[in-house]
Design brief:
single chain; 3-stranded mixed sheet
Length: 79
Amino acid sequence: MWTINERFSELVAKILEVGNGLINDPTPKCANYTHELSFVSNTDIKLNYKPSKKEKQNGKEEITYLLNEQNSKCIYGAI
């Protein structure tokens, strides 16, 4: 199972670097240009967010989200 650790963070950072490279590429693009970056794995991915004490006082709650073949797509920021 993938979890948020150094190895997973490194992979996500590389994906984001590619996205930033596409956004910052000076090559002219058509008005409706878009791109989508995907991370594909045949292993479950467990995402867990634990708010700090101050964030808990402000109403934020812990979130655990499991991505697998039954819910195979997740848009960052949508959970």
